[in-house]
Predict the structure.
Amino acid sequence: MILAADIGGTTCKLGIFDPSLKLIEKWQIPTDTTDEGGNILKDIHVSFKDKLRVYNLSYEDFTGAGIGVPGPVDFEAGVVNGAINLNWYGHKDIKKDFEVLSGMPTIVDNDANLATLGEQACGAGRNKKDVVMFTLGTGVGGGVIVNNLLVHGTGGSAGEIGHIKVAVEENLKCNCGGTGCLESVASTLGLKNMAYKYQNEFEQSALDTMISSDSLNAKAIFENAEKQDPLSLYLVDKMTSYLAIGISNIAATLNPSRIILGGGVSQAGEFLLSRVLKQFRNFTFPPAVDSTEIVFASLGNDAGIYGAAKIVSQYKK
Ligand SMILES: [Zn+2]
């Protein structure tokens, strides 16, 4: 049996899996970010213990725990280098801290990496050994799996697909401090920033009121683009071609059999995908076009706990 936790800024998603990665039960608890997030691991430990009592199980019945965190992780060491959303600053030895609390072998990885692994193991990438995921949400996250294993890179920043440079000419600021990143044009925030930048080039738009009241979101942009609002269409075309450039670069570098699109912005569905596919075929190194399939994620918010369970099954026997 395996325990899984996916720590987010507002909730921690928790799960119990059997050895074949069947989800036995999932639940969530609020994330307590007070005291510099010092209670988060304790709360998870207590919640696991309570739940195991219901099943008449104890930690001895488990091969280990997998924990996903929203920050950069040194995978070998299980150390997180800060997680702003959790009020964690500096290096935190999460693996050691949770092993001391629980006495259970623990594996820690970045949440976007684990969501990718979850989709590869049990979702939209099932039965494919080379998979890359783009998570299009408030920011742009991602993960890279080669030969069934997550790629972490030397410094742990492999798979930071949001920060590949695809839109330098836009000169829009990214959360990382740089400009030109995929995140600066293909996330909710990126779409908003492009709306502010290009609003004045269009006489009138259905987005105008939302822009002036600062209530614009990605959903509204896609909905109005479908209704042929010129500014919205312009933004969607820009966003999808930048995304296609990003996907194209990944396809030529790694030639994965599947590229998975997840996150809130991917809810735009076929309207988004048809545009991305068209540009992808235009841009991409021809031999990589036919062998790379672009699909939507299928596990939603559960991807993280599936990945947390999978990584334990890969590294702890
Ligand atoms: Zn960036």
User: Anything to note?
Assistant: DSSP finds twelve helices and 13 strands in the chain. The longest strand covers residues 23-30.
